[in-house]
């Protein structure tokens, strides 16, 4: 009976472990698609609560003729990289220090740069800012069967952009935002399709930029020439109050110990 009971207990433990492994495996698979890249950066780890996602391309535009300096953190003067002015860099996160200066985390080197030293690249965000009054909150759909001869459906970064790609659309698309350009083309925004998003020219979804605008276009894609910033932003080391307090307590304790030793020695001499 004891042997049978022991076997039953071992089987129960085994199945319990296997069940836990299965749950972890499935939960890991389910969450894999929602993984968000986070840098292995000590400053990022210690200031997570004050850092926000940003994810936008910029152009280095530092007042320093040597280029844009990338610092290890907004609190240290250690430079880990330098980019020539005019270089495009991708900012993944943004942090605002106590002085109100904004800092961006450069994704490929995981260092920090002042946002004041960056010039904006024309992108989907810039397009929305420029044409906010022309983007309509209206619904529309594109039936995949209406795309003739199996042509591709191109996703554009924004209406009028020369940058586009084919995500392999094989199902109907639905839009909740519409825009009509100067050439009369109607565009719809796809917020999510197979990890992609973009604008689709609904009336000609398989057309290239040259086919849509044989003579070019002038309603989007242009940013004013950036001017050099006049403000000087440099890392500023913040005082760690806890560390300072700890050091002070330690110094006081050591001083007190020294005084006691001196007094004890004097007492012994008198005796």
Amino-to-carboxy terminus distance: 80 Å
- Which quaternary structure do these chains form? single chain
- Secondary-structure element series: HHEEEEEEEHEEEEEEEHH
**Would you report the number of β strands?**
14
What is the helical fraction, as a range of percent?
Answer: 25-40%
Question: What is the spatial order of strands in the main beta sheet?
Answer: 6-5-4-1-7
Tally the helices: what do you get?
A: 5
What does this structure look like?
The protein has 271 residues and is an alpha+beta fold. Helix content is 28%, strand content 27%. It has helices at residues 2-32, 42-46, 124-130, 209-212, 241-270, and strands at residues 51-60, 68-73, 76-83, 88-96, 102-106, 111-114, 118-120, 140-142, 155-156, 164-165, 173-175, 178-180, 186-193, 196-201. A five-stranded antiparallel beta sheet has the order 6-5-4-1-7, with no helix packed on it. Strands 12-13-14 form a three-stranded antiparallel beta sheet, with no helix packed on it. The protein is elongated, with a radius of gyration of 30 Å.
